[in-house]
Records
---
Amino acid sequence: TYIVTDNCIACKYTDCVEVCPVDCFYEGENMLVIHPDECIDCGVCEPECPADAIRPDTEPNMESWVELNRKYAELW
Ligand code: SF4
């Protein structure tokens, strides 16, 4: 799954939302988030992000970002 990280904070771009085939982006408190269970791991959003904020959860130390994305996505 892909996850939104800190470079998204206060970012005003929504290019990622427009390309996601399963609409799994949600509004967090001051950034967008991805619902980790809804993401189909297609990778389409990653190159679209001008802030380089979208990372695969296979990168090191992603656990807290996965939890934050899940927490805000599930509020919707
Ligand atoms: Fe959506 Fe694909 Fe990005 Fe997952 S990897 S958030 S399914 S565009």
---
Amino acid sequence: MTVKVTVTGAAGQIGYALLFRIASGQLLGPDTPVKLSLLEITPALKAAEGTAMELDDCAFPLLRGIEISDDPNKAFDGANVALLVGARPRTAGMERGDLLQANGGIFGPQGRAINDHAADDIRVLVVGNPANTNSLIAQSAAPDVPAERFTAMTRLDHNRALSQLGAKLNVPITEIKKMTIWGNHSATQYPDLYHTEVAGKVAAELVEEAWLRDTFIPTVAKRGAAIIEARGASSAASAANAAIDHVHDWVNGTPEGDWTSAAIPSDGSYGVPEGLISSFPVVSKNGKWEIVQGLEIDAFSRERIDASVQELVEERDAVKELGLI
Ligand code: NAI
């Protein structure tokens, strides 16, 4: 069956890095033909058409068509996977309330369009920031879609943490298992090495405590800003790569003996209030995310997780107050 994948913000930086990988089969696997639906705002439609021309020019064997629209109702019609990338960025002098309001104006209508037009098996990944709360806004506008189909991306943070730890210990990424990012995709996120295993040993015991606390955690949490500083533009190819990883694992499952990180609706596990879209250690089985249960949380980790979850509670309360959920 051909799978329809809708990408919003398709003419943006991440869109440009993402669409070619989807069309080449890396999102869903080598046996699944895809149809792409590109949603953009009207002034960016021409740029989206340019990207579509390039997609045509790749002659991807799995690509079975490209649609371009500025109407969410058309773009999400029959969609099986929705990657919500386009968002309103924070500009100088913008208050948090203004930012949330502007994003409510994007993710509310998109959630409604998904509710009314997407396929029954729709899966949604929100990449556009503030990703966790934008996902909550879209979810709340889509009451007929099962709540667990709305997720937000912390896979880039997860991959950054793997890479930083691998470099520190001089081991290949394949030696590292059970990395976890907890909480919000923001500077408060908590990358947890207390359950991570490196060649069967606990990662937190293989590194100095000062490195873990004063170097590793802030490096991972502030990596986005460091990329902007170095590149003069925000992460795009690595963000697209993480979106591919997230959806690929959601659809195809996570490897036995390992887990990954994704922001999914909380069922109350680990003291995270039910319904918040927060990052957890997760496995994917039969096309569904499940939170890894039974991990012991030490006092240091508890404090970090609580701080990030508190930020999510505040964002949720703010969008509630604005009538966006
Ligand atoms: P960009 O500015 O290059 O592209 C965004 C695109 O979205 C633009 O083409 C714009 O026209 C489009 N857009 C705006 N409103 C739209 C709407 N209502 N419907 C459809 N399209 C719309 O931005 P870039 O670099 O591609 O980043 C996109 C988002 O991803 C940003 O919010 C960024 O903060 C976020 N991001 C999230 C990461 C994560 O780990 N969760 C990592 C990196 C970026």
---
Amino acid sequence: SIQACLFDLDGVIVDTAQFHYIAWREMAQDLGFDLTREENERLKGISRMESLEIVLSIGGVELSEEEKARRAAAKNTRYLELCMQMTPDDALPGVRRFLDELKANNISTGLGSASKNAQVILERIDMLHYFDTIVDGNRITKGKPDPQVFLMGAADLNVPPAQCAVFEDAVAGIESAKAAGMLAVGIGEASVLTQADIVIPGFENFGLPQLENI
Ligand code: BG6
Ligand code: MG
């Protein structure tokens, strides 16, 4: 049975995915092209610098290494400015209740995020204390879809991968969970997260009984 639950951050705990999209789109428009919602799906779960490369390739824009670093930093400043409007009420519906339920049942919890801003965002929504371990973009050397992020989380919690469940909204994150040998719960649409073991729209009607039924 499941002994640990590992959560992605952006788009699972809190809807920061919309702020990433706004900030990348503004950069694209500044460079003279648009970034569609569909194109943005490819960026979910992907590190900041890799995302930048994808956005530039969509626009057919080439930049020097120096200019890339400057653009990535500017995107992050804008992203954090948008994030700072958030309050603890911005945690996605049902997510706190589910984490409380896990705690009450002695199931370990971990964060597995590509973001270097994970800690500051969890503090902003007052949810840092929910996680027994945090694996974020500052710790990993291989991004999703590599399984490293979730394997590190499982190792921190001392739980075998087969007894871990991962909650993810990104195609790359589901791939990462499956490559780690874990149960993958997709948050979003089944037509997008085709490799997930189950896909749910969110945590509102989801709890331990539903998890144990998968
Ligand atoms: C992931 C997001 O969680 O973190 C990506 O889905 C983002 O969109 C990545 O690029 C890195 O985030 P940050 O905060 O380090 O730029
Ligand atoms: Mg995500």
---
Amino acid sequence: MARKKIALIGGGQIGGVLAQLAALRELGDVVLFDIVEGLPQGKCLDIAEASPIDGFDVELKGTNDYKDIAGADVVIVTAGLPRKPGMSRDDLIEVNSKIIASVGEGIKQYAPNSFVIVISNPLDAMVTLLQRITGFPYNRVIGQAGVLDSARFEAFIAWELGVSVKDVTAMTLGGHGDDMVPLVRYASVKGIPVLELLERKYKDKAKAKEVMEAMVKRTRGAGGEVVALLKTGSAFYSPASAAISMAESILKDQKRVLPTCCFLQGEYGVKGYYVGVPAVLGSNGVENILEFALDAEEQAMMDKSVAAVKSLVDSLK
Ligand code: TXD
């Protein structure tokens, strides 16, 4: 059986980590594309020269030519500018729309059967644009936001409770903006509600709620927290890990349930917009969108987040 092929469009900070992770996990051969000459070639050579040490058998090719992505099974898009301190994700819409439009043309022409995972910001608008340009079916074009936002929430919970990150489950829904919806009610440690564990830890319901709210707030601002520390760009290790888990679920038909930016056609009362919801990712891309009842407070937060996504997407030219 031929090896799978993963094309990465954008060879910057996230693109480089994506290439390394895809190689380390032997997901398939890797093509790293960028418009900057030498950058993807240099990164691929560097990673490939570690293969005897790490022991992975995949080919890595850096390129400035879309022809090289031909036959890709999965394409992950990080092309575009990242945030600088003081910027919101939405400030990137003009410049990144132009970039995503050209990337969409390249993918449409050279990898017409691929599954596409968009990472570039503002995420909800860029995935919408890329789907429009390629015309690919909705199950083949998705965005990465929720896996990372959820992982951040899970990490904060694990650190607060002094338990392994492996035993924490939590999820965020909605758009990839400050209005995202971290689901407090379903956050658990091996199925035990996090709120109950906090109440037992602090022996005080009000304090437990306060600690939970602080974690929710930190989750919403987690991208900005990293930007403020780095000063020159945004998070890149964790977004790459998040997208790789989505790609792996598709390539290996794992059918993992991952919070994914999916095109909704009535689910959660939303029609015609990309929004983050739990989805089953397998060899057909988005194979199912899982719906469940939100309580009044969660629904109100979801409505607010969806409204923000709509106004952003409607501003696309
Ligand atoms: O969770 C998420 N979705 C995100 C998204 C989390 C963090 C950052 N996220 C966004 O990803 C961020 O706001 C940016 O819009 C993208 C990429 O972030 P990265 O940190 O990798 O940015 P870099 O290092 O600037 O890399 C971008 C590369 C760079 O090498 C450019 O030369 C290249 O994109 N680029 C292009 N590649 C292909 N085609 C075109 N037209 C192009 N223009 C620039």
